[in-house]
Structures are given as structure tokens and as C-alpha cells.
Amino acid sequence: MSAPAPRTAEPALPQWVVTANVAGAVLTLVLLVGRVVINHWHNYGWWSYSAGEWLINYGAGFLRRGAGQVFLDVPAPSAIVALEMWLLVEWTVISVLLALLVHRVMTRTGTAWALGAWVVPSWFIISTLQLAWKPIGITNVQFPTRKEQYFLMVVLIAITWWQSRVSWPSVVAISALLVVGVLFHEGFAPPTTVALLVVGWWATRNSPARSWLARGAVLVLPALVVAAAVVSHPGTAADRLPVWDAVDSTTRDWYLRGDLPPLTDDIPGAIAYLGTTASDGWRQVDALFISVGAWRWWLLNAVIALGAVVLVILACDRSPGAVRRILVPLLLVAIALLPLFLIAIDWGRWVAFLANLVLVLGLAGVLRARDPVPLVPRPGTVTLVVAGLVFAALYGLPEIGDVSWGAFLRWPG
Fold first, then answer.
1. Which residues, given as ranges, of the chain have pLDDT below 50?
2. Omega before 191 cis (within 30°)?
3. I need a labelling partner for 116 at 20 to 30 A (CA). Which of 3, 218, 229, 305 fits?
4. Residues 215, 204 contacting (CB under 8 angstroms)
5. What CA–CA distance (Å, rounded) separates 155 from 132?
6. Given this model, what pLDDT does residue 27 score?
7. Which helix (H) or strand (E) holds 136?
């Protein structure tokens, strides 16, 4: 983003604030790495469905989401080990870059409000810990291991890289990362592209319009071409078995000897979804959410999850334009995500991804502000913000399931 207007140097942050920020990143990694380590020797089901999704490959030829082939081909003892190492790298990059972004916002505003980013219900800490107080099945909370986190990582890399300027090498690199993401999961490319365009626009706003138009084209067009190829090769039911058979025996054994792993005809659930159509997805969405009116409760849950994010951002900055800088990206990203809500039932995933994109965009927007005006941290305001975040955390955010007030009142069930 373009450099803010010159101002006096900000005072150093208190040590407890810096320590708390580092602790947020460390706790995130400890929780996630710990869960994977526990599940390494025995598949307890926590992330087995996600693992199956990552392992979709080109064993039946080029098809949608088959880039998991890379975990079969890299030199590693098994695909599951390669995938575990990849997730470790991904989580580390995300946690470190979020910690850096939070630190910059706190330094810029002179307040600790940005620490709230670590405890919003869409983030890895609460989404993992909520198993302790919410009646959520262990196989229904796999947010950190899902493919959308790759796209969150790409956006964080762009925000960090484009802090001062948008260079051609950086645009090419981000474009390449976006192309890889399309090969993993094309559904997250539209909202991610919107987020990247917003960040790029902020960073080049004081440059000639044609400068960002050219860079934007280089950013988007390769991914668009690859997306067309992916969508035209969706895979069929006949591809399911060859894809599963292509996975090495060690990984297959790990999956199958687990505690009730999700299987369909002895094939992991995510791979078993190959060949399903948008019409099939819509019928599921209609049956689970629309026809029975459950969408209203999910809308409420989305408002609570997004409200926690907006609360943190507006506490960091209430200057003129602050509301616009968060609500416009929220609306644009939500529109880009709408197709997933219409054809896939993992509504909690879509809400969490929307909230996390808005979170990092909102923090980036605070850095974009000419002169941010944070909420004065008086006892009353601190109490209200903390109470709002605690309520959102307690309500929680499952990937799918019952999010009605009845479910909220039944915890810990």
C-alpha cells in the first residue's frame, strides 16, 4: 500500500503487547501442529476428510482439484508426511505474517486492539479450541487444514509484499501462486482475486490508473485461463477409484485404519465427491438450509462471526473512510463467495474464509488510513469489546450443522 502521510514517530509498544502478539502466533502453531502430531500415527478423524481432499490427484488424468498430485510426487516417505510438512509450512507463513500485520497496526495506532484478531471465531485458535465447549463433532471442525487457508496465505503474502509498492516481479509471483491455488480448488479463486485486487488498488492508488490495470491483468488472466481448463475437466464418478488407487499404500493405510473415517464405497468422502454437479450441490443446500429455514440461523451466525472481525477493525480505526474500507471489501468478497453458498453445504467454511479475508483486508486498510483514530481504551470500551469477542467465541462457528440458539444453549453437550 502507498506510504501514509508523514507523521511523528510512533512510541514503542509496551512489552506485554508485543509478547501477547507473539503468543498468539505460537499458540496457533502449537494447537495445529499438536493435532497433526497426535493424528500422525493413528487417524482419529480430526482432519482425515481434509486430507482426502488434498490428495485428489491426476491418477485418472487432468481433472479439477487434482493438484494433490504434488504430494504423491515429492520425495517424502509418504503422501501423508508430505502433506503434513506442507501444512506446517503454510501455517507458519500465515501465523508469522498475521503477527507482523497485527504488530504494524498496533504500532501505527499505538493501541493493542489488533490483538483481537487472534481470538475471532473464524481464526485457527477459537476454531480449534471450540471443541472444548461446543457440541461439535470432531470431524466437523477442520478449518485450519482446509484448502482455503492456502488462499488466505497468498493474500497475506501480497499484503506484506505490497506494503510499499507493487513491483512487476511481485505481481508475477502472486499470479503464479494464484494459478497453483486454482489447481487446488477453483472455488476460492474469485474471492481471493477480489481481495488481491483490493490490496493492489490500495497500493497503487496514487499511481496512474493504467499502471494497476496492466498489473491487474497479469495477476488475473493466467488464473482465469487455468480456471477455464479446470472447470472443463470436472471429473466423473468413474475417476474416483483411479484417483484413490494412485495414493501410496502407507497413506491409504493411515486413512483406512482410523476411527470411522468418512468413506463412501470405501473411498474417502472428498474423493467420492468427484463427478457431482452444481445441481447436485444445490439440491443438498436446499434440503439442509433453504427449505427448512436453517439459513436464517446461519445468517445470524455469519453476522456474529463477521461482527467480531468488524469490531476489532473499527476499534483500531474510526477515522473518516474506515467503515468504507472494511464494508466495501466485505461486500465484494461476499458476492464472489456467493456461488459456494449456493452449491456446497460447508457454509461454516465459507463464512470463516470470508471473515478471515475481511480481517486481513481490514487490518491492511488501517495501515492505508492517512491518520487512523483508534478507540480510546477506557475501562468501559475495553469491557464492551472483550465481551463482544467472548460472546462470538462462545457461539462458535462449525463447518456445518445446527447453529440455532438451541444448539448454543446446549453447550457443553
1. 1-3, 5-8, 412-413
2. no
3. 3
4. yes
5. 30
6. 98
7. none
Residue 36: CB atoms within 10 A of its CB come to 20
pLDDT at residue number 219: 96
Of all helices (H) and strands (E), which one includes residue 305?
Answer: helix 295-316
| 74 Cβ contact partners less than 8 Å away, ≥ 6 residues apart | 82
Q: Which of 315, 327, 295, 313 is nearest to 400 (CA)?
A: 295
Copy the grid coordinates of residue 89: 509450512
How much is the pLDDT for 266? 85
pLDDT confidence of residue 413:
43
pLDDT number for residue 134: 82
Helix (H, G, I), strand (E, B), or coil: what is residue 263?
strand
Closest CA to 50 of 133, 151, 126, 148: 148
Q: Please report the sign of the dihedral spanned by the C-alpha atoms of residue 189, residue 193, residue 199, residue 203.
A: positive
Output the DSSP codes for 56-102. Answer: --SBTBS-TTGGGHHHHHSSSS-HHHHHHHHHHHHHHHHHHHHHHHH
